[in-house]
Design a protein that fits this description.
4-stranded mixed sheet, alpha/beta, 6 strands, two-stranded antiparallel sheet, 127 residues
């Protein structure tokens, strides 16, 4: 269930055609999860400022069940930063990346939370 949301004042026309597919692949590789579970949301054209300036900027959130921690977050930041700079032309000092650790019981998918899915899988494997 890894997800990334990029809110930016960059115009939608500045988002490259293959950006979502490339970001999906990058995030899947970083968190070692299949692409089928990655959710990417881009929210362009926003009225926003960073440091009091409305020059191009962004606010990015990455959430995941597990795979979030000091070492991981630094590695993710080191790879996501140049990707964002290159593809959205947002200077590296004009966006934040926030990392949010999700608990399995707090994320639902396909009618069940991941916590329920884990407990069901554990019960099935113990029988």
């Amino acid at each position: 269930m890894p997800s990334i949301q990029i809110s930016t004042n960059a115009p939608a026309s500045a988002v490259p055609e293959n950006f979502i597919a490339e970001l999906t692949a990058l995030l899947a590789r970083l968190v070692a999860k299949p692409e089928q579970y990655i959710c990417v949301t881009i929210v362009p054209n926003l009225l926003m400022s960073f440091g009091g300036s409305q020059e191009r900027c962004a606010n990015i959130s990455v959430s995941c069940i597990g795979k979030i921690g000091a070492e991981e977050n630094q590695r993710y930041t080191a790879e996501l930063t140049p990707f964002i700079v290159k593809n959205l032309q947002v200077p590296e000092d004009r966006f934040y990346i926030s990392y949010i650790e999700q608990q399995a019981d707090d994320v639902g998918w396909s009618g069940k939370t991941f916590g329920v899915r884990r407990r069901e899988a554990a019960a099935a494997s113990s029988t």
